[in-house]
Design brief:
The protein contains three helices and three strands. Helix content is 30%, strand content 31%. The radius of gyration is 13 Å and the shape is globular. Strands 1-2-3 form a three-stranded antiparallel sheet, with no helix packed on it.
Length: 83
Amino acid sequence: MDIDDFKKMIRGLTEENITSDEPHVSLRCDENNIALEEVKRIILDENTILIRIIEDRPKVYKLYYLISKNVELKIVIDLFMYQ
């Protein structure tokens, strides 16, 4: 998936559309001093700088956002939907 495809896919989503694997995600957010709401905002904000996407395994991607000149934020997303 390229960056433009990802941005098209999330267009129109809200924070309520994003779920997390608790308690793992909350623990990782606490360890890195960032709130889950902030992570969701970063994913949905069209003005954040998404610099690359790496497919880890089918439907699981690592998103890399440029937070500052020397800091990147890695967010792992899983697009698999259980039926």
